[in-house]
Specification:
The complex is a heterodimer of chains A (110) and B (114). Chain A contains no helices and 9 strands. By secondary structure, chain A is mostly beta strands. In chain A, the strands form 2 sheets. Chain A has a 5-stranded mixed β-sheet, with no helix packed on it. In chain A, strands 2-7-6-5 form a 4-stranded antiparallel β-sheet, with no helix packed on it. In chain A, a hairpin with a 4-residue loop joins strand 5 (55-56) and strand 6. Classes of the chains: A mainly beta (110), B mainly beta (114).
Chain lengths: 110, 114
């Protein structure tokens, strides 16, 4: 049980921002929210993670709701190389394996 | 910097043959190590994970086994492969005990059973 809910698929135009939502309404206070993405025929790649505050890195931004029951991964300008399956994962402790759900398949249209 | 190596990249094996996939991590010590499998068109399924040498936790009972003979080496094995063992096998590592650090995945082994 991944304990997160994501839309099955989303579509974006190239160079437009993309907002990928994730619902984690049963999250505990110590759970981190991690995002990974999997490009075709490759292993998953770490994107970003956070606990309470919004986070930014070179790949994306993570906006976490004040009640922590949801979060949004933001790709500021989608490119064709961003087409992938994006996974939102709750991580409880450092020794806990990731539990992958079905993720959101992002298609980017040129 | 840390790197993870997985081999072979592709493998074609007959039903009933043995299997050995190897994964090694460089540039870190006492990592947590993981084996995942992804069947065609499906999500990632955790198979085994290890928090130390000789410590293996199995998530899914099946004809696969895992071993960790050295700190940074993780091996996935089978004595007799089944058709259902076909899939994309991924090894991953993470720093010990830190939930705010990501997992890093290898390039995977694509296994086809004939």
């Amino acid at each position: 049980d991944a304990k997160t809910t994501q839309p099955n698929s989303m579509e974006s135009n190239e160079e437009e921002p993309v907002h990928l939502p994730c619902n984690h309404s049963t999250i505990s206070g110590t759970d981190y929210i991690h995002w990974y993405r999997q490009l075709p025929s490759q292993g998953p790649e770490y994107v970003i993670h956070g606990l309470t505050s919004n986070v930014n890195n070179r790949m994306a931004s993570l906006a976490i709701a004040e009640d922590r029951k949801s979060s949004t991964l933001i790709l500021h300008r989608a490119t064709l190389r961003d087409a992938a399956v994006y996974y939102c994962i709750r991580v409880n402790s450092g020794n806990t394996p990731l539990v992958f759900g079905k993720g959101t398949r992002l298609s980017v249209i040129a | 910097s840390q790197t993870i190596h997985q081999w072979p990249a592709t493998l074609v094996q007959p039903v009933g043959s043995p299997l050995s996939l190897e994964c090694t991590v460089e540039g870190t010590s006492n990592p947590n190590l993981y084996w995942y499998r992804q069947a065609a068109g499906r999500g990632l399924q955790l198979l085994f994970y290890s928090v130390g040498i000789g410590q293996i936790s199995s998530e899914v009972p099946q004809n696969l086994s895992a071993s960790r003979p050295q700190d940074r080496q993780f091996i996935l094995s089978s004595k007799k492969l089944l058709l259902s063992d076909s899939g994309f096998y991924l090894c991953a590592w993470s720093p010990d005990g830190l939930s705010n650090q990501p997992q890093h995945f290898g390039d995977g082994t694509r296994l086809s059973i004939l």
